[in-house]
Amino acid sequence: MSDLGPVLSASLARGAYGSARALQGGPAAAEPIGKAGGETFAEMVGKAATDAIQTTRQAEATVQAGLAGKVDTQSVVEATMSLESTVKVGVAVRNKLVEAYQQIMQMPI
Predict the structure, then answer these.
(1) Per-residue pLDDT, 81
(2) Residues 67, 96: one domain?
(3) Other C-beta atoms within 10 Å of 55: how many?
(4) What domain of life is recorded for the organism (predicted)?
(5) What pLDDT sits at residue 45?
(6) Gap between the Cα atoms of 36 and 10, Å rounded
(7) Do 104 and 56 share a structural domain?
(8) Range of the structural domain that residue 62 is part of
């Protein structure tokens, strides 16, 4: 799935590249590893999770309002589509994290 724009950012890529260069002793070794792009990986993942939970709650509220007849059908469909794309991105990210964890566990010590 290539729709990971909100999850991945250029600052994350720069931070990862800087960390790799620091491990090799390259020119980026003097840069701080934790805050290379202004936001740590943990902060970025936490923000993405918070956004996903917020989208889920908004979609559920819209669907409930639609069932009660307070919201038009178009709004319910839009909320459902938003929820579906959020779930797809979340599952794709989870699958990549599990795959990376499994690869790390297979590495010889």
Answers:
(1) 95
(2) yes
(3) 17
(4) Bacteria
(5) 86
(6) 11
(7) yes
(8) 41-109
Contact criterion met (CB below 8 Å) for 3 and 31 = no
Tell me the whole-structure pTM to 2 decimals: 0.58
| Cα 65 from Cα 68, distance rounded (Å) | 5
Q: What is the CA radius of gyration of the chain?
A: 19
pLDDT in tens, the chain (109 residues): 445 454 455 555 566 666 666 666 555 444 455 555 688 988 988 998 999 999 999 999 999 999 999 999 999 999 999 999 999 999 999 999 999 999 999 998 8
Pair 37, 12: CB distance under 8 Å:
yes
Alpha-helical regions (H) of 5-68 = 10-24, 41-67
CB 57 within 8 A of CB 15: no
Same domain, 33 and 53: no
The answer to whether residues 106 and 86 belong to one domain is yes
Residue 70 lies in a domain: yes
Q: CA distances (Å), 74 to each of 4, 51, 71, in order? A: 26, 22, 8
